[in-house]
Design a protein that fits this description.
alpha/beta, Rossmann fold, eight-stranded mixed β-sheet, 6 helices
Length: 218
């Protein structure tokens, strides 16, 4: 797929940081989990020094569950509808992540907006991948919005999560041109391919900042 279109990644990072012991991450996902699978693959090949401690999903039928089961990664289904208040829902997720001793939380297709309450428990230790060149096109319909607005360039971004939706310090972005014949499906496939490239490197960089205690004073 990457031979069929041109793209730019910034910053250009070619090597992963090495972690000993491995960086302990928790993944939050709501759907198919292709980014989750990419992390599994890189971990199994020994290319990315991560220990995926747990998958948390809010969907009973999310395919990411099957991906976790195949490689015996613990998973937990935590559904918002099972709780009377969002804070209780988030407390359950927080407790799960703490119990698995997670250092970095990776939102990879997590289709729930987290509150300042959740973010405050893991300050500067949550990253999110978003299918646009932030700060453009925030929200759940970013790919559709980029097409409807006649954009010529789009892409994806990985950023630290803060209290404002799809904001926070950018870690890495990938950009590509929108062709005249692109639709939501074709553009989504291209962006997903770029997500698979930048998310692992962003995890590596975020892990380095966390392990060096830089983010504690950020």
């Amino acid at each position: 797929m990457d031979k069929l279109f041109n793209y730019i990644i910034s910053p250009e990072i070619s090597e992963f940081r090495r972690f000993s012991p491995k960086l302990k991450i928790g993944v939050l996902a709501s759907g198919n989990g292709t980014n989750f699978q990419e992390l599994i693959n890189l971990s199994e090949k020994g290319e990315l020094d991560i220990d995926i401690k747990v998958l948390v999903t809010n969907k009973d039928d999310a395919y990411c569950i099957k991906r976790a089961e195949r490689v015996k990664i613990p998973h937990k289904i935590i559904r918002g509808k099972d709780f009377s208040q969002k804070e209780l829902f988030e407390k359950e997720i927080i407790n799960t992540l703490i119990n698995f001793d997670v250092e970095l939380i990776v939102m990879a297709g997590w289709m729930k907006i987290v509150t300042p309450f959740f973010i405050s428990k893991f300050k500067n230790k949550i990253i999110n991948i978003h299918p646009s060149l932030l700060p453009s096109f925030k929200g759940v319909s970013a790919i559709k919005d980029s097409i409807l607005n006649g954009s010529k360039i789009t892409g994806c971004s990985v950023h630290f999560v803060d209290d404002e939706l799809d904001s926070g310090s950018l870690i890495m972005q990938a950009a590509l041109s929108i062709r005249d014949d692109d639709d939501i499906e074709s553009l989504s496939k291209k962006i997903h391919m770029l997500e698979h490239k930048i998310l692992p490197h962003s995890i590596s960089h975020a892990g380095f900042l966390i392990r060096s205690n830089f983010m504690d004073n950020y």
